[in-house]
C-alpha cells in the first residue's frame, strides 16, 4: 500500500513537472514570437521611413527640375 502511494506521488510529481516544463516552453515560444513580431514591426517602420525619405527627396528633385524648366522657358 505504501509503495503504491509513493508511486502515485512520484507519478503526480512527474506530471506536474511535465506540465510546468510545457508551460515554460509555451511562454518561451510566445516571447520569441513577440520578439519576432516586434523586430518585423521595427523593420517595417524603418522601411516606411526610408520610403518616405526617398519620396521627399524625389519630390524636392522634381520641384527643383520644374523650377529650372520654368526659369528656362521664361528666359526664352
Describe the protein in words:
- With 76 residues, the protein is mainly α.
- 97% of the residues lie in helices and 0% in strands.
- The protein contains one helix and no strands.
- The chain has one helix spanning 2-75.
- It is rod-shaped.
- The termini are far apart.
Mean pLDDT: 87
The oligomerization state is single chain
What would you call the shape?
A: rod-shaped
Run of helices and strands: H
* SS element count, helices: 1
> From the helix content, strand content and strand pairing, which structural class follows?
mainly alpha
Ends distance: 111 Å
Number of strand segments = 0
Q: Regions with pLDDT < 50 over 5+ consecutive residues?
A: none
Work out the helicity level. Answer: over 70%
Our estimate of the beta-strand percent is under 5%
